[in-house]
């Protein structure tokens, strides 16, 4: 069994223990063993990053750009291979996995260009004979803590802007999916970036994450994950004066109005709710449907769900892979029982299923699940399940649908299916979400524009695109007497 080490100060560094990385589509398939680092590994990685920062933060922008472009080029060239690894360890289908890898490559390419577009301002002073320059400088060593549901794209959209803006990095990937992060680290390691600029420390969140958050030499923490963990990180960062960026939960609404194109509304709801096994923070788990279209929508969505083939993520014909782990499967099934107990009507799914290919592989397979005739106050409509489970709420009109959509502690993504320009325009302005989709799935965003939400979904500056600079830099104002 191949052991995969941590990357610290430009060297692959052995750990005291290793953990197997198991394929959720086939529990007999172990991908490899990955390092379980400790607090001492974080200390070494942060020390290396801090030592590398003075040179990297003031280095030539062309060298940074060339390195990021080289990383992006290799990722794209190995898209099929890396997609195979991603599908194997995380469970999203092979086409989805290859698409995610492609996105990671494009992110590095984008920020290779951003290295050459670092700008500032020169403004006149209110005092004669004095000039004022406003510039941005890299914030320092950043700790990046990433989740399991996008094991290469989310590390990429944190690492690339950090490096582009002159920061040094310690990455802690999710313990469930270390393979994609290790492969990305290997590519970065061979890109020509100096030792210590990028470091990878794998291991348990309670060990590695806490050590990063509490380290005095880490200037900022960017975290994507659960709301509870995120709030704890925010509290610790505020106490120590660290800059913090959080992407957390979602309970994303998808409104379907009476005037919607039925086939389009059904397809975007199915894609948002069940593709990637519903394991996307932007997934639509609340379908808010108006009266007249409600019966036809439910019937058509049930028929569409019956076509979804659940099975091995890498097998041809699979539409939905397994959920990521036994714990996640148990959580998803527990919400099915909670919804039933609260009076929701199960219209489809709700149980573990066998692989559609009939291969006999033992995996964490769950049928896409739909509850209808639900009430807004039910837990199924208030709490994030993070699985292939959606619920439908019936409302009388657009105004009630909008109020229902906004009635949530979260605010990441929200969608509306309608042919009414009036309602679409009003929804874009009045939806309390960071991202709004009109006649599109709520899951699915571009790599060159900002990503993030409102309320309990996000905290701090936006990720991705040019807006990422806000987190990874600090502003300096310099005055010069002419």
TrEMBL record:
Keywords: Oxidoreductase. Pfam families: Aldedh (PF00171). Residues 12-477 form the Aldehyde dehydrogenase domain. Involved in the toluene-4-sulfonate degradation pathway. Does not discriminate between the sulfonate and the carboxyl substituents and can also be involved in the p-toluenecarboxylate degradation pathway. Gene3D superfamilies: Aldehyde Dehydrogenase, Chain A, domain 1, Aldehyde Dehydrogenase, Chain A, domain 2. Belongs to the aldehyde dehydrogenase family. Its EC number is 1.1.1.257. InterPro entries: Ald_DH/histidinol_DH, Ald_DH_C, Ald_DH_CS_CYS, Ald_DH_CS_GLU, Ald_DH_N, Aldehyde_DH_dom. This is 4-(hydroxymethyl)benzenesulfonate dehydrogenase. The active site is at 247. It catalyses: 4-(hydroxymethyl)benzenesulfonate + NAD(+) = 4-formylbenzenesulfonate + NADH + H(+). It comes from the Bacteria. Homodimer. GO terms for molecular function: 4-(hydroxymethyl)benzenesulfonate dehydrogenase activity; oxidoreductase activity, acting on the aldehyde or oxo group of donors, NAD or NADP as acceptor. The lineage of its organism: Bacteria, Pseudomonadati, Pseudomonadota, Betaproteobacteria, Burkholderiales.
């Amino acid at each position: 069994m191949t052991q995969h080490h941590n990357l610290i100060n430009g060297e692959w560094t052995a750990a005291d223990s290793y953990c197997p990385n198991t394929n959720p589509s086939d529990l007999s398939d172990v991908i490899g063993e990955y390092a379980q680092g400790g607090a001492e590994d974080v200390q070494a990685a942060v020390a290396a990053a801090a030592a590398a920062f003075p040179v990297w933060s003031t280095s030539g922008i062309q060298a940074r750009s060339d390195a990021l472009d080289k990383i992006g080029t290799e990722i794209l060239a190995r898209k099929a291979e890396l997609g195979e690894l991603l599908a194997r360890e995380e469970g999203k289908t092979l086409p989805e996995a290859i698409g995610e890898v492609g996105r990671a490559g494009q992110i590095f390419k984008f920020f290779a260009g951003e290295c050459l577009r670092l700008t500032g301002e020169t403004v006149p002073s209110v005092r004669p004979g004095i000039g004022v320059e406003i510039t941005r400088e890299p914030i320092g060593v950043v700790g990046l803590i990433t989740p399991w549901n996008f094991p290469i794209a989310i590390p990429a959209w944190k690492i690339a802007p950090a490096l582009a803006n002159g920061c040094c990095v310690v990455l802690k990937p999710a313990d469930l999916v270390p393979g994609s992060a290790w492969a990305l680290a290997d590519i970065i390691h061979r890109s020509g970036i100096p030792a210590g600029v990028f470091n990878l420390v794998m291991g348990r969140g309670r060990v590695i994450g806490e050590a990063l958050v509490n380290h005095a030499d880490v200037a900022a923490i960017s975290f994507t994950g659960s709301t509870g963990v995120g709030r704890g990180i925010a509290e610790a960062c505020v106490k120590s004066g660290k800059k913090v960026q959080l992407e957390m939960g979602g309970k994303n609404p998808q409104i379907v109005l009476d005037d919607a194109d039925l086939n389009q509304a059904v397809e975007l709801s199915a894609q948002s709710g069940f593709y990637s096994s519903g394991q996307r923070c932007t997934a639509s788990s609340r379908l808010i449907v108006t009266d007249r279209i409600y019966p036809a929508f439910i019937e058509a969505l049930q028929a569409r769900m019956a076509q979804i083939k659940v099975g091995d993520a890498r097998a041809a014909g699979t539409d939905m892979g397994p959920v990521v782990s036994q714990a996640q499967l148990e959580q998803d099934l527990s919400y099915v029982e909670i919804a039933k107990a609260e009076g929701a009507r199960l219209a489809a799914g709700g149980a573990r299923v066998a692989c559609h290919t009939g291969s006999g592989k033992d995996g964490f397979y769950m049928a896409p699940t739909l509850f209808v005739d639900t009430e807004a106050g039910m837990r199924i409509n208030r709490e994030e399940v993070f699985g292939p489970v959606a619920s439908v709420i019936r409302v009388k009109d657009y105004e009630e649908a909008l109020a229902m959509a906004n009635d949530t502690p979260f605010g990441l993504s929200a969608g509306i299916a309608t042919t009414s320009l009036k309602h679409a325009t009003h929804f874009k302005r009045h939806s309390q979400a960071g991202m709004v989709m009109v006649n599109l799935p709520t899951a699915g965003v571009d790599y060159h524009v900002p990503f993030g939400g409102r309320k309990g979904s996000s905290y701090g500056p936006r990720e991705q695109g040019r807006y990422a600079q806000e987190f990874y830099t600090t502003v300096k104002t310099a005055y010069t007497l002419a």
